[in-house]
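Slide 14.
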Amino acid sequence: MSLEDRIKAVDAIETVSERDAYAWAYTSFHSDINVIKNLNKLIEKLFEELESQTTARVLSKDLEEELINYATRLVKTNRILKKQALKNAYLSIENKGEFERLLNETIIRRRGIDVIRDMDIVYIVSLFEGYLQKVLQVTFAKKPEALKSCQKNISYQELLDFKNIKIAKKRIVEKEIEIVNEDIEVVNEYFQKKFNIDMSKFVDWKEFKERFYRRNIIIHNSGVPNKVYRSKTGYSGGNEKMTVSKTYLDASIDMFETMSQKVGLALEEKIIGYKKTKK
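Slide 15: predicted structure.
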């Protein structure tokens, strides 16, 4: 049975033998991705319910006076901004009344969705890098001779410190799989040279790469495009923070699932000889 057939079985029963190494690596990745999917559904549903309850409360008769007072405050602030020719200003929410407390909670929820989706992208990319490490470990275990042309070298001192060849081999593999932490273009070049596998053929490569560079600016630049992001993606927009929409997140999940499955299939065919099932 090919990996593709076994993945279908995994989708159906959510379990697979740990001895089936490539399928096991994919199953682990697939399971974590499903957690992200389901968690987002739960959060969105919860926030929608809270939003509905908040709206009903704000529009209730007992908060009418607070709503009028807040609207008056906004009008006065707007006049001040125009008079002083200010383009941007922050109006504090002091939580003195029920209306402001509910408004503050609404803002937190809406901002919370953005934060959660940002972290989803960061986590998805990290999961994929972890998946690549796992399938490379499987590959070197099944085909040790592939290590003869390894990218990383160990020092003479390290070699002397190893108690046996098994420990030395483990260390070499650990250093070799660090390649997945490089730029995604470098990772793809590695797979091309090492296994004759071109990941750019499996999905929309431009969009797939963008997720890695988006991950970087989320972590290091608060989601604002920097010089590296622009040069790598061709982005020519403004310097505002980029948001992760539901559509963007869903498309990202689909791409990474497709890529992980196809990389696993390609490696298994190269190393073990399983053929992809023809449809």
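Speaker note: The CA atoms of residues 166 and 172 lie 10 Å apart.
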